[in-house]
Structure formats: structure tokens, C-alpha cells
Amino acid sequence: MKTLLYDVVVIGGGPAGIAAAVKASGFGLKTALIENRSVLGGIPLQCIHPGFGVHYFKEDLTGTEFIERLLDKLRGSAVDVYTKTHVHSIEVLSHDEKIVNAVTRSGVHRFIAKTIVYATGARERHIYEINVVGDRPGAGVYTAGEAQALMDIYGVLPGREAVIIGSGDVGLIMARRLALEGAKVKAVIEMLPYPGGLTRNIVQCLYDFNIPLYLGHVVTRIIGRNRVEAVTVAKVGADGKPLKDTEFKIDCDTVIVAAGLVPNMGLLEKIGVAVDPATRGPIVNDLLETSVPGVFAAGNALVINDLVDYVVEQGELAAESARMFVEEDGSPSLQWLRVGKGRNIRLVVPHYVSGVRDVVLYARVSQPERNVYVSIPEIGYFLKLPEVKPAEMLRLWIPRRLISKSKEGKLTLEVKPA
Asked: Would you kindly state where each structural domain of the chain is located, as residue ranges?
């Protein structure tokens, strides 16, 4: 067993992890970046479509172009990179000493770190999680990410006639990719009465290609033994359950599940990190520090983000917080204010703020609304917006001078009609 000493160990080699590692190394901290795959880059490696980097690089880039620019920064840093390295477990010995146990090609390594930045991304929800019954075909059922990897990395067309379950962004993008490659996308099925993806993707991926979108519908059954042959679809009632008398059949050979993402929390849960049921990620303060001191989270492992630019922003903030932890021998003792969820707010991150620094709040609403105020009444913060949608994350910059005005020991984020 090999023992290695670091100031910061970053787990996860996607955009958040790379950004965190580069930033931490730039501060002069001895930094390791651990990735279980053979290459760094994460999901953007299989994203050949544009929409990346508009905020961070001030250019509209493809996913591969975006990640190559991050990798250029990494190559110019002093970060020690470990690929094909599986993190087996994390141990917390004290507030400034953690152990990351990892299996590498050359054997077991023990990374002893003062801080950890956890940036392992998210997993896709699969067919068994969305209550679709029927046959279990040997071929033809994929998650959106699997289908994207097949097409954009391996050059394999997953099917000729597809039905997509869920209107999340990856599913919408896959609808366009399939159409561009000559496949027929029969329908995109969404249970909610509104789309789950960004407006630009609804327009560019569905409307521009005349792909039908069925809102308020669910796939109730998959038909096919050796391969998918068809699906049955039904409207949903007010209680969210399918209405039997509205069922109809769509012939297809492929079903793509785009039912959302869930943060990868396995390793953090084992060391007792508190979890937010709304995000299914860790509860953090404005340093992005979890309930375990010196363990920070960023990217989709923290909260599911719309844009990779936000992911990188969180990775860099986690690195700055790790530097503060190392230099000050622990997190500062502060008076934390709880950030609560008011009217029409489904989730908000971070969960605690101190008022000693400016803060970016990431939030999602529960229902779409037009002509609203996003407000924090305790500090007199108001932002008027023409509309808010569950699919589009709110990114709110809150200056510390406002946060310090709170006399109630809490902040409540809410959305109200203008």
C-alpha cells in the first residue's frame, strides 16, 4: 500500500473537478485529481453540440471544445492526476486529516488529505425508477446518456424509430441527434404539464425538427421481447396517475429514458454527510462545505445544474474554500443563517450563509409563473423576472452588505406575483 500526502484531493475528473484542481494548485496547494475512467473530462466529452462556455469563456463552444480548454489549464498546472483510479472509501480521522482509499493499476493507494473536494457528478435515473412496466427487451432501452455516448463517441446509431421518456435537456438533445442521423423520433413523452428542459432546447431540438411533444402523458408499458417493438402511452389525471381509457400505442424499436439526474452521494453518505431531500445532494454552507468539516462539494454532485459554466464556478469556489481551510487550520467560526424555501421554491443551494462574503444562490421553482418577483424579504432583496420555470435554474448574486441586514437569523427565498 502506497501512502501519499496532499493538501487537497479532488475526487472526480469532470468539469467541476478539473476546475477545482487547477484553482487549488494555483493557490500553491499540493493537489491530487482522481478519476475512475481512463480519460478526464466527464460528460462534455460526449457532447458535440454547442451551448457550453457562454458565461465562463464568453464564447459558445461545444462540450468537447469546452473541456479541451479546461484540460489546457490543467496541463499547465502542478496537479497530480490519477486516472483509472477507483475510490473505495473515505475516512475522516480529524478535522484536518482525511484518508481517501483508492485502487489503482499499481495497487492500493492511501491519499492523506487536509481537504477533499467531492465532484463525482450525477447518475441518470433508469427505467426501473419511473414505474414503467411491461416486457424487459434484450435490446432497445437506453438512458439518454448511454445513447449519447453510443452516437457521439462510438458512432453507433441506437435505433431507427425512437420514443423518448422525459423532456430533460439530454433527452431533447438526443432527439435532435437522432433526427440529424436519419432516425425517426416518434414522440417525446413528459409526465408534467410543462417541459423539463431549457426553452432553447425545446425550440432547437423539437420544434425545429417537428418532433411531437406529449405533455401530461406517461409511458405505461414497453412491448417487445428480443427488442423493443412498441410502447403504450396514456394521459395522466390530476393525481398524476395514468388514465386507462386514454391509452394509445406507438410503434418503435428504441426507448430512451431522459428522466433526470441524481447526485452521486454514495461515498459522502458513508461518512455521515447530511443530505438535502430536495436536491438529493449534500447540505452545504456558502463555502460549499458539507456537514463534515474540510469536505467540499461542487458540480452535479452538489446540485443538478443547467449549465457547465455553473459547475466550473462551483468547482473554483470549492477550491478557494479549501485554501481557506488549509491556511486557517480549519473552517472559520461564523454565525450561519439558514436559507429557507418560501413560496414556489423547490430547492436552494447553499443552505447556510454567513454574511461575510458575497453569495451566489442556485435555486429552482416548483411551478412555472410569469411576471414575478424573486425576493428575500428579511433583507429587502427583490428581483423582477418576466417568468420562472422549473427547468431553468435561478442564479442569484446576493451581496454581503444585504445578508448582514438580517435580524431574524434566517433568509427565506420566495417567488411572488409582481
From this structure: 1-124+261-329, 126-259, 336-418
Report residue 125 CA to chain centroid gap: 12
- What's the pTM? 0.93
Q: Which residue has the cell 431574524?
A: 408
Per-residue pLDDT of the chain (418 residues; tens, 9 = 90+): 899 999 999 999 999 999 999 999 999 999 999 999 999 999 999 999 999 999 999 999 999 999 999 999 999 999 999 999 999 999 999 888 999 999 999 999 999 999 999 999 999 998 888 888 888 998 999 999 999 999 999 999 999 999 999 998 888 999 999 999 999 999 999 999 989 888 889 999 999 999 999 999 999 999 999 999 999 999 999 888 999 899 999 999 999 999 989 999 999 999 999 999 999 999 999 999 999 999 999 999 999 999 999 999 999 999 999 999 999 877 777 889 999 999 999 999 999 999 899 999 999 999 999 999 999 999 999 999 999 999 999 999 999 999 988 877 899 999 999 8
Length reported for the chain: 418
Q: Architecture of domain 126-259 in CATH?
A: 3-Layer(bba) Sandwich (3.50)
399, three cell numbers: 451581496
Q: Provide the sign of the torsion angle of the four alpha carbons 377, 379, 383, 388, taken in this order.
A: negative
32 closest CA partner among 13, 10, 3, 4? 10
